[in-house]
Amino acid sequence: MKSLGVIRTFAAVLALLMFSSTAMAVPNWYYGKVERVFVYLEGFVMEFDTTALDDCLHTYVYFKAPNLTEENINRALSVALSAQASGKTVGVVIDKAINGPGGHCNGNGSIDIKD
């Protein structure tokens, strides 16, 4: 009888772990051509031509403090402006599960020129 209780407890814990791991946030890469970059007090905002960001506030990617250091913001800004000037595709990493639908989609500092 005691072993049945242990098995049920183990099964419950296993089920809980399975469901909680699928709900965990997973950062993803989003790609598009840079349409607009503007700098503001806390960092900069980038807009690019992808429907993947339709659930982000204003469809922007925010690179800002305190999420990123000033050095990371400046590096990301340099890559964003280079991609815009050259017309190349840029990729950014966003964790939408953290930012929430309709919220600010904050770039985590990872940015890449794809083409």
**Helix percent band:** 25-40%
Rg for CA atoms: 20 Å
Text of the CATH class: Mainly Beta
Q: What order do the strands of the largest sheet run in, or round the barrel if closed? A: 1-2-3-5-4
- The domain tally reads 1
Dominant shape: globular
Order of helices and strands: HEEEHEHE
End-to-end Cα distance: 64 Å
Approximate strand percentage: 25-35%
Instruction: Tell me the CATH topology.
Output: OB fold (Dihydrolipoamide Acetyltransferase, E2P)
Structural class computed from helices and strand pairing: alpha+beta
- CATH architectural designation: Beta Barrel
The pLDDT mean sits at 82
Largest sheet: 5 strands, mixed, barrel
Unreliable stretches, pLDDT < 50, 5 or more residues? 13-23
Number of strands: 5
Number of helices: 3
Characterization of the model:
The chain is of the alpha+beta class. The protein has a single domain (26-113), classed as OB fold (Dihydrolipoamide Acetyltransferase, E2P). The protein is built from 3 helices and 5 strands, in the order αβββαβαβ. The chain has helices spanning 2-23, 70-86, 96-99; strands at 28-40, 43-48, 60-64, 89-94, 105-113. The chain is globular.
How are the elements arranged and paired?
Layout (H helix, E strand, L loop, with lengths): L1 H22 L4 E13 L2 E6 L11 E5 L5 H17 L2 E6 L1 H4 L5 E9 L2
Parallel strand pairs: 3-5
Antiparallel strand pairs: 1-2, 1-4, 2-3, 4-5
